[in-house]
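EI: anyone free to look at a 72-residue chain?
SC: sure, send it
EI:
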Amino acid sequence: ADHIGIAGAYNNLGNVYRDLGEFETSLENHRLAHEMYKRVGLPAIHPDMADCIQNLAMAHHNLGEFDVARTL
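SC: here you go
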């Protein structure tokens, strides 16, 4: 089930994997968080969603996907 707390946990896991240098896994967790936040109706201006979007952009940046990161 979708829940804001679970989305937050995915976002945090993405940060942990980023710190470990596992950028693909980091990106996947940030994607899961972003999709779940959207499904529960969090607007882009909500602090949790804004943090998630920033982390998603950083994950793309870490993978060298600069054009994708800029569009978020």
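EI: The chain is about 75% helix and 0% strand.
SC: 👍
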